[in-house]
Design goal:
Length: about 475
């Protein structure tokens, strides 16, 4: 509903405008028909009244009696409002031959309407030579003549019709203006906004740069486009700054690890090796004269120092793995064996494309660190028993997939921004993995459901091999 609210509002306004216009047309037509009917009845009443009136000087049986009274009645009939103006209409009393016996003021000009021979007793619309329209009724007189009553439609209804037509044209103009306004609103505002929204939906903030979302006549949309473009540039700059920060941070971590590995190798490990050698020399110097108890203590001390030396050597390999130089395949096999032993025999299956041995050392190290962190999370948090990793090339990209059979979680609750928040709450695994992925300028996608295990898909651009 909300998605199409603007379109729905435009449709409602358009329908309301169209309905209002058609109602106006219907009302105008109904009013015109009502006025037309009234004028016809008016003309018919005039004709009937004059048809029943005795004509002065005519051969009516009662025309010679009470002449003043008959003249008064005839004059009273001529005072009807429709006959007060020459342009409004008139009445003609005609002989059977068509000569005028009596007439209302100025009605002689209506004689041509008689020549049209309208039917008797029926209102008829007739136009004169000037194009004026009249409602004409012809009736027979009691003394063998005719009465012609005419009411001018042009004169009496023209002002009202002009008002109604003006109102109708105004309604039509307003409806057309509203419709055109809605069309323009949709074309220049709603449609561009929808396009902007669709483009923003597919945009990756911090990666995609918006040049120009809108170029049109609406300055507000153009300003909005400029603001979004500026925000996209700032997001890219912020992302680049964050990548540099993370790169420096990870690089500092790796340098610290290497330095610590060197210190352990050159310090504690060498001391442990020297201690083993001195114990061996002590046993050789004592020869067979040393008692059994002392020899047992020397043997135990040598074993303890040897175990410590092996652990220090393992720490050195963990902090600064020299086996990375053997290539990604060998390095992944080595780290898989070490992790399987470290986590109590968890089954780790790896499938690595051999052509990836050509990757730069920092890329291989990033993949190894990602794999280490993923296995650690799977075992410690998901109680997984099996972990499988597949790394290969596909369509100019390097894809890494790590899947386990652990307890899983709701991956929909996390996004790239949520990974960073997890670091502050003590859950650093996903944040560390995401940092490594961003250093590779790649993307990470999680798929997990409670009880269904977890799958991490990582994709980053391939590095062309220098020829």
């Amino acid at each position: 509903m909300k998605k199409n609210l603007l379109l729905l509002l435009m449709i409602v306004v358009t329908l309301f405008t169209a309905i209002s216009f058609f109602i106006s047309v219907y009302a105008f037509r109904a009013q015109e028909l009502a006025m037309d009917s009234m004028m016809r009845s008016y003309a018919l009443d005039l004709a009937e009244n004059f048809a029943n009136a005795p004509v002065p000087g005519s051969g009516h049986p009662f025309a010679g009696r009470g002449q003043p009274q008959r003249m008064m009645r005839f004059r009273m009939l001529l005072t009807t409002p429709a006959l007060q103006s020459r342009d409004a209409g008139g009445v003609l009393l005609l002989s059977r031959e068509g000569s005028i016996l009596a007439a209302s003021p100025g009605a002689e000009r209506l004689l041509p309407l008689w020549e049209r021979r309208p039917p008797l007793g029926e209102p008829q619309e007739v136009r004169d030579s000037k194009g004026d329209s009249y409602y004409v009724v012809v009736n027979t007189l009691q003394d063998d003549g005719y009465v012609l009553a005419a009411v001018s439609k042009t004169y009496l209804l023209a002002p009202l019709i002009r008002i109604w037509r003006f109102w109708l044209f105004s309604a039509a103009g307003a409806s057309a203006a509203i419709f055109v306004g809605i069309v323009l609103l949709w074309r220049y505002l709603a449609a561009p906004l929808r396009r902007i929204v669709e483009e923003l939906k597919g945009m990756k903030w911090g990666k995609d740069r918006i040049v120009r979302l809108y170029a049109g006549p609406v300055s507000e949309l153009e300003a909005l486009s400029a603001v979004i473009g500026r925000l996209s540039v700032e997001a890219i700059e912020k992302e680049a700054l964050k990548v540099r920060y993370v790169t420096d941070l990870v690089q500092a971590q790796e340098n610290t690890r290497k330095q610590l590995a060197r210190e352990l190798h050159d310090g504690a490990l060498q001391s442990a090796v020297a201690a083993i050698k001195r114990i061996q020399l002590a046993k050789e110097a004592a020869g067979g004269s040393v008692n059994a108890t002392l020899r047992e203590h020397l043997d135990n001390a040598e074993d303890v120092v040897r175990i410590a030396a092996d652990e220090i050597r393992g720490y050195c390999d963990e902090l600064s793995p020299s086996w990375v130089k053997l290539g990604l395949v060998s390095a992944m096999c080595e780290i898989s064996d070490r992790l399987s032993g470290a986590y109590g025999g968890v089954a780790i299956d790896i499938d690595v494309d051999e052509t990836l041995d050509s990757l730069p050392e920092e890329h291989m190290l990033a993949l190894i660190r990602i794999f280490q962190e993923a296995v650690s999370n799977s075992v410690r948090h998901g109680d997984a028993h099996t972990v499988r990793a597949v790394i290969g090339r596909e369509d100019g990209m390097i894809r890494c997939s790590i899947e386990d059979d652990g307890s899983g979680f709701d991956s929909d609750a996390y996004s790239e921004t949520e990974y960073e928040r997890l670091r502050t709450t003590g859950h650093r695994g996903l944040a560390n993995i995401n940092e490594r992925v961003r250093l590779l300028r790649g993307t990470m996608r999680l798929e997990s459901r409670p009880g269904k295990g977890c799958r991490i898909d990582i994709t980053f651009p391939d590095i062309p091999v220098a020829m």
